[in-house]
Design goal:
Elements lengths: L1 H15 L3 E7 L2 E6 L4 H10 L7 E9 L7 E9 L4 E9 L4 E3 L8 H12 L2 E3 L28 E6 L4 E6 L30 H5 L1
Length: 205
């Protein structure tokens, strides 16, 4: 398998020319890093080239690196049933730029791109129906971004008096716990009630 992936990587290095920035093999899978402007050309080559035939669109997902200028990775996963190989294709994009929609190459990309838009705010140009699909109407923000608050911005409940669902700002009844690692099972500095009963091996544990 490793040898086949190595040969495929070398072949694609020539076939994709300047569209391919780099490639490597990791976790038994070939990963291509390509220019976002050339993603459709790359996907078509992987689908149509006789030595590739990656005809199955498995997945598209986003990855958030908020510290980077090019904040997001958009990751495509393809399968070649003929060669029994998988391949991963990555492009980088910032918050304001768009990624060409892959729907015309792989129609299955439709809902995956909508999910990436909903969860991360990644924009796909020429998508016929780019709207949220998992969050509610009027939802603010993108939940899988690493700067999105863990509690969310609003909470939803049904109001029996108004007979409708209402949205309210999140209220925490208790502040988040600060873990100082001074709990008994971490070995508190002071002697706690009951500790005097432990001795020998138990005390050491």
């Amino acid at each position: 398998m490793e040898k086949e992936l190595e040969e495929l990587g070398v072949y694609l290095e020539g076939a994709l020319s300047t569209s391919l920035e780099k490639w490597h093999i990791k976790y038994g899978e070939l990963t291509l890093f390509v220019l976002v402007s050339d993603i459709l050309t790359v996907l078509k080559t992987l689908r149509d080239d006789n030595k590739c035939q990656f005809i199955n669109f498995i997945d598209l997902c986003g990855v958030d690196y908020p510290q980077r200028l090019m904040r997001f990775d958009v990751v495509y996963h393809l399968l070649s049933p003929k060669a029994n190989l998988r391949i991963r294709v990555k492009v980088q994009v910032d918050e304001d730029s768009t990624v060409p929609s892959a729907i015309n190459v792989f129609p299955a990309a439709n809902w995956f791109e909508r999910e990436a838009y909903d969860m991360y705010g990644i924009l796909f140009s020429d998508h016929p129906d780019l709207r949220r699909m998992l969050t509610d109407y009027g939802f603010v923000g993108h939940p899988l971004r690493k700067d999105f608050p863990m509690t969310g911005n609003v909470e939803v409940r049904y109001d029996d008096e108004l007979k409708r669902v209402i949205y309210e700002p999140v209220k925490l009844g208790q502040a988040f716990r600060n873990f100082d690692f001074e709990s008994p099972w971490e070995g508190a500095a002071q002697i706690l009630p009951g500790d005097e009963k432990a001795s020998g091996k138990d005390a050491a544990d």
